[in-house]
Every structure is written in structure tokens, then in C-alpha cells.
Amino acid sequence: MIFEQLKEEVHKCIKCGLCMNACPVYKQLYFEGASPRGKVQLIRKVLEAQLEPSEHFRDLLFTCLLCENCSVNCPSGLKVDRLMKAMRAELEQKLGLGWQKRMVFHLLRSSRLLPFAMFWGRIFGPTLLSFFAKEGKVGTIPYDRIPRINPVPLIKQYSETILPDKRKIGRVVYFTGCATNYLFENVGHSAIAVLRRLGVEVILPKGQMCCGLPIFLSGARKMALDNIRHNLQILDVEKVDAVVVDCATCGAALKKEYIHILEEMGEDTEAAKAVAEKVLDISQYLLRFDLAKYLGPVRNRVTYHDPCHLIRSQAVKAEPRSLLKLIPGLEFIEMAGADTCCGGGGTFQWEHPEVASGITNNKIRAIEETQASVVASGCPGCRLQICGNLESESIGVAHPVELLAKSMNLVIARRKLR
Amino acid sequence: MLRPEVLQEFMSIVGSDRCKTAKEDLLTYAYDAYICEFLPDAVLFPKSREEVSEIMQTASANDVFVTPRGAGSGLGGAALAKRGGVVLCFTMMNRILEISPANRYAIVEPGVVIAEFQKEVETLGLFYPPDPGSAAVATMGGAVAMNAGGMRGVKYGVTRDYLLGLEIVLPTGAVMKTGTVTTKDVTGYDLTRLICGSEGTLAVVTKITVRLLPKPRTKRTLQAVYDAIDQAGTTVSKIIESGIVPATLELMDKTIIKALEDSAHLGLPRDAEAVLLMDVDGDPETVEKQAATVAGFCREQGAREVRVSASEKENERLWAARRSAFGAVARMRPNCLIEDATVPVSYLTSAIKRVIEIAERNNVLIAVLAHAGDGNLHPLILCDRRDNEEMQRVEKSMDEIVDYALSVGGTLSGEHGIGISKSKYLSKQLSQTSLDVMRGVKKLFDPRGILNPGSFLEDREL
Fold first, then answer.
1. Which residue in A11, A17, A20 is closest to B334 by CB distance?
2. Which chain B residue is nearest to residue A46, measuring alpha carbons?
């Protein structure tokens, strides 16, 4: 049953409607059921036993990016996103998950199956993707825009302890997340190379698993519990400055979601709180160093997209921008609505391609208006979504740390930046 | 209940996507920003005048109640299907049809969101002043139906003052135009202004023509903090007497100041009794002079602290307090009722004091915001609607506030409308003759009584 303290949230909604203006999904669909206010109403009705948790209710509840913009803009301070996440968990227990999600989540929670699947996925990727695809697209993203799986998972390419290039002045645990490990290895190489150059020893726990966020945000909390416990255990490393994360989503999970979920499930939250305190987005950690002296010019124009899981889940807004602005020669241009969701929302863009397209198109337009040649963003989900929908081949998407590595003249790119 | 064949007819007009009948969907159209709920039988989302006309024809032929609705941000239940039937929701009919800088007018569909429209015209150096607190969500159609006001009322007036013409659909389905696009128009009765503020009881609006102003070249914000509410009150009178017309003139009382400091830490003194926030706008030279004069008034009246902004950015910083006020207060209790009784501006201070006294005597938590420049009070009544006993005290307080406003020549509602929240007070302000005339007008427009039934004109208990 929904956590007692969250139940009170539904009564705090004064139906002012200010969330509707903040909701990218409502602004595509223009009916209440798609808005946060509407969903809070329905959750209240379910909690008051005036509404059966139906399939239609579930559809409406999942017509949401979980971008958290409603929570940020609610004058009553309602934790709308937590309420919706908790209700999703409720629904998963009552109505179960679809087979496709079940299949993917089983992979994500298994430390053996996932590498296995990724190995064969590199070879049979397109065939596998066809299970999920319509008309050459997975959701809104064309097949050929989905990056190929890393030939060798990033973690396998390094030893568990990576020594710095020079005298050690820092030590971190690096949580790569699945995306960097299996899809965007260049982000990982860049992060490691930058850290080493600065004199940071990097601990790369071999046993790290998927953070579990895609699983538990779909409602399957029990299924994600092993991932959560396991990660908390392996991230508990003595004498480190920080647990560094290069993925906005993994960061949100480690910094915030784990605690919420464990708390709401009545589990012990000690370990989660201890880890959360140490978690830093890589942009936050890097700013502790005097970076300027390492940086060489990069002639480019860059704009920055705020991932929901960074700006709202973790309140990281200034740091990635500061990093980019430090790079000499790199012209930084703020895009309109940088903090608006890109429309990806994990499985959202696959479940609601039309709605996602509308939202993504707005984002792409804002990017194009800046006339930047690179969009920086610290989230693999946003990267997939933006990259998959950019018309122009001349605009690339990169993690800020990749640009930083470039500026440090660390030649590590094994594949084209995109 | 809607007969299946009638529903079928509605569905064939708008298509099944834009006709919602599932319980889940209906529940999300049972509310607005007031605290009552009424379940409609169906929600229709028209996208054109033709669709609206066909819907009204079908509704008329089958005696189906129709309640027009915009974003549902109203504060009095005006857009709720109080007797069931269909909700006609305009959020999907939301195009800006024309902006004419040469003639300074714009034509929009009713579902256009006010703030988005304002942003659009401002890119052309134009200005649409009415800005109700809900402008970020509320629709132009809703603003017309409710004659929405807002913070700029003191200088720029309300929605009604900007209407040039309307396209409306009568309950029979007949389409009619009112007004023109010219600022001057004395041809026949002014039906445009009759429809405005009629709360969706006479006709359904499908097109709105509004007058635009040139955008003021500059704006300065002033903030003054007072130890006594009287000092703030006399400052307001001084400003108004002086002939300076500020673009906004907002007051926040001590409850709001405390709540703001608890939640947002904006650096306001916690023991202050009142804060005034003012904008002066216009040409840079005039604005400069006026800002200095107004600041002088504030100090003369004993303001302990006066800040005058030096830039757009600082304007925003000073406004942060007022913008956060509603949220800061709203989170003190589960529900927040926003009163809007309005008094002649010279009674402002006494009215605020009376509201505070009423709150204390009835043991009800009330924070007072006010559009001080036009005497429009916004007592925010904080409560929990699940507590019946508390709600009785709330109602008693509201009765007393209304009585006071009327006793000094004010009005029941300055800008939120009557809806169902204030319908029981209507006869306190309007004479029987006045009510009879209004009902006669209603009868003429809507002889079968299908538009927004249960609205303010019906004195029956719901």
C-alpha cells in the first residue's frame, strides 16, 4: 500500500492548475488526464476507493515523463512525482508489467544475462530491436541512429583500480551505469582520462549493476531491490572523496530514489543515505579542481541541455555550464527552454511516440536556433533522444566530460562523437 | 444521463478522440480551483466554430446541459457541470489567428493561454495588460467569460476593457458576431461586454478580438516594508491622490510575510506588518521621476525600508516575494480559498484590519494579499475541507467579509466571479429588479436553459 505520508499529499492539491503550464505532456495533449493535476485527482479517487485502478488509469499514469517539473512548480509543494512513482508501484502489483518490459528488466537485473545479451546484441541488435520497433523506429528514434553496443564493455577494459597520471590528490568510486558501460564508452574513457590527468585514483567496481531506475520507475520495485542492495554494497568503499556518476539518471537513483524506495518499502535506509551523501555528478566533482591550467582551446559553439534527472532530481544546474564555460575557445550559448524535458523519458518515447515527438521537436528547434555545433548533456537518455531526432548531421551531442577531455587534448575517442 | 444516441451524435461531430466518457476522464473534469466537484456525463473538445455550432444544435434538440470550460483554473465553480451533461472544453481550440500591429488588435481562439498570448504579442512590441494570477494556465476564453482582472487592474483595467469583438455561438447553434475590430463602435447594444463576465450562461465564445497597447518602454519596481498596516494604507492613498497611476500596487500582510520567510527566505523582516510592491511603467524619464516620488511617499509614511530596483533583473528579484506568496501560504494547510471581495480603495486599510479581526474572532487562518491600488482584497482562507466544523467557521468568516465589503459600497467579487461559491450572496448586492432583468436576458439568449445550468442566476440550493 502507498506510503502513509505520501497519502496526505493528494489532499494538498488545491487544483490551481499551475502544474499544467509546467507539464510538457499536457502541452501536447491538452486534456486534464494528461496533466499532473488530473493524475493527482485520480490517485486521490483510487486511494479513497472511488475508482478502481483500471488499465485506463494506468495508461494515464504512464502518460508522464516523470520530468518532475510539476513538483518543482507546485505552489503547495506537492511531491507529485513521488506520488506517481508510488502509485505505479501499486499498479505493478495489481496489474503486472507488459512482456517487453518484463524481458528488458530481467536483463537489467542480472549481472550475467546483461553482458551476455549485450555481446549478442552487438551482433543481432537490429533483429532484437525489431521486437520493439515500428516502421524502422524504436519509439521516435530511427534504427540507424541507435548507437552500436560497445565492442567490449567499458568496465572490462580497465582494472578495478585505475591509478592517476601523476601524484595522487584524490580518490573516487566511479559508477558508470549501463549506458556508459555498454553504449557510450567514449564518455567513460573521457571521464577516466580526465580524472587521471587531475591526479585522481579511480575505483571502478567490477560488480556494478544497472542502477535499477528503469525497473522501479515502471513500478517493479521488488524486482529492482536486488540491484539497489547490491550497488549500495559495492559502492561502500572506504576513503574516497566521492562516488562519481556520469549519468544523470544513475545519479538521481543513487542520490535520491534509492532512499525514497527503501523508505516507502519499509526497508532500512542507512546504507542508501550513506552512499547518497557521497554521490556527485562528475561535473560537480571536477569543479573542485583548478581545471583552467589543463585546458587547451576547442573551437566550437556549444549549447547545453538540462537533463531532468540532473536539474530537478539533483539540483545540478550551474556546474555543467561552468565546466563548459571554462574551456577556452568554446563559445557557450544558452538555448531557450534548456531545462525543459527532451521528450525521452526512458520508456516514454517508446510508449508514446507521438507525444514524445512533439516535445522533442520543440527541443530540437531550440537547439537549432542557437546555431551550436554541439549539444552538451550529461544524460545518455537525453543523448539518445536528441541525437535520434536531430535533422542536421552537423550537430553533435556530447557529454560535457567528453568536451573537457578534448580540451585537455586527451585523444581517446575510438568512435565518432554523436 | 446522456442517451446513447445523443452521445453518438456528439461523437460523430468531434470524433471519438475528442469525446471523453470514461469514468477516469470524467473525474478529471469534475473540479476547477474551487473545492466542489460535479461529474459531467461527457467532455467534448471542439476545434472549430462549426463543431461548436453543431454541438449546440444537438444539445438544444435533446435538452442536454452544456457547460463551457477553459483551463479549469476558476475559483468559484463556474465551469463545472453542476447538473451533469457535457463539458465543452476549449483547451484544444487554441490558435492565435491574427496579430495586427498596424491596427493594434489580435484575434484568438478561446483556448489560447493568456500568458502565451502575452508573450507572443510582446515579441512584436505590443502589450496585452490583463494578467490574472492564473495567466500561466488560464485561457482567453475563460478570461472573457469571467471578466478576469489581475494585478495590473489599477492602471490598465480588466479583460472587459480590452475586448473589441467576439464570435459567439448561441445555445441554438446560431453563430453571431459582436463588436468590430475598431476601438470606437457604438452600433447597437454592446453585447460584447454583456457576454464578458456572463460566466458561460448566455453563449459560447469561439473567437475573441482584443485591443493591444504599445509595450511600455520601461518599468521600475519598488518594495516598501512597514511596521503598521495603516502606514501602508496611507501610502496607497497618497500615491493615488498624487495622480501617479502605478502599473501594479500590491499589498501583503504579516501572515504572508512570515510564510514567505519560512519557505523562501527572501530577507523580509519577520516582524513587519505589511509590504507594498509597486511597479511604475512608461517612458524612462517619467518612470524615473515617478519612482522617486513614490519612494518618497513610502518613507514619509514611515516605511522602515524602501527598495527601488535599478534593472529588469532586480524588478524580477523584488517580485519574487509576491510571486511566491501564494505558494508559501497555500502549503500551510491542505486547502486555500481565495476570496476577492472588493472595496472602494479608501476603505482598503479598514477592510484589511476587519478581515484580520474576523479571522481571529472565528479562529480561522487567513492571510491577506490585496491588489491595493483598486481595493481588491485577496484574503487567502487556509483550511482543510475534510473538517466540517472548521469549514463552518470558514463560511461564517466569508459571510462577514462579504457583509463588510457591501456595507462600505464594495462588491461581492472583484474578479473571480460568482459561480457557485458566492451565488448565495447575490441577492445581498443585486436588487430583485436587477436579478429579474438578468434572468430576462438569460431567457432571451438561452430559452431552454441548457447553458451552464446551476450557475449564479439560479437561486435554488444545489
1. A11
2. B24
Residues 65-84 of A with CB under 8 A from B: 74-77
Which domain covers residue A39, as residue numbers?
4-95
Number of domains in chain B: 3
Of B407, B424, B450, which closes a domain? B407
* pLDDT in the model for residue A418: 36
pLDDT band at B458 (very low <50, low <70, confident <90, very high): confident
In the predicted model, residues of chain A with pLDDT beneath 50 are 413, 415-418
Contact present, A195 and A172 (Cβ < 8 Å): yes
Are residues B116 and B237 located together in one domain of the fold?
no
pLDDT reported for residue A122: 75
| Residue A69, domain member (yes or no) | yes
pLDDT in tens, B310-349: 988 889 888 888 888 888 888 889 999 999 999 999 999 9
> Which residue of chain A has the CA closest to B337?
A14
* Residue A146 confidence (pLDDT): 82
Same domain, yes or no, for B199 and B226?
no
Distance CA B133, CA B131 (A): 6
Residue A54 near chain B (CB below 8 Å): yes
A266 dihedral zone (left: phi>0; alpha: psi -120 to 50; beta): left
C-alpha cell read off for B128: 496585452
Interface probe for A, chosen from B18, B19, B23, B24 (most Cβ of A below 10 Å), is B24
B134:A18 CB<8 A = yes
Q: Is the pLDDT of residue B218 over 80?
A: yes
- Our count of domains for chain A comes to 1
Tell me: pLDDT of B172 over 90. Answer: yes
pLDDT at A128: 67
Give this prediction's pTM: 0.93
Q: What grid cell was written down for A384?
A: 539518445
Q: Residue B105 sits in which domain range?
A: 96-214
Of A250, A217, A215, A256, nearest to A231 by C-alpha is A250
Query: A15, B33 in Cβ contact below 8 A?
Result: yes
In terms of C-beta density within 10 A (0-12 exposed, 13-18 middle, 19 or more buried), how is residue A411 classed?
Answer: exposed
How close, in Å, is residue B111 to chain A by CA atoms? 10
Q: B113: nearest CA in chain A?
A: A21
- Look at residue B417 and tell me if it is in a domain: no
pLDDT of residue B459: 55
Q: Is A168 on the interface with B (CB under 8 A)?
A: no
Model pLDDT, residue B262: 85
Kindly report, residue by residue over A79-90, the tens digit of the pLDDT.
999 999 999 999
B453 domain-assigned: no
Confirm whether B114 is domain-assigned.
Answer: yes
Residue to mutate among A7, A18, A52, with most B CBs inside 10 A, is A18
Which strands, in side-by-side order, build the sheet including A200-203? A161-162, A200-203, A170-175, A242-245, A279-281
Q: Is A183 helix (H, G, I), strand (E, B) or coil?
A: helix
Residues facing B205 on adjacent strands: B168
ipTM above 0.90, yes or no: yes
Residue B63: count other Cβ atoms within 10 Å of its Cβ: 11
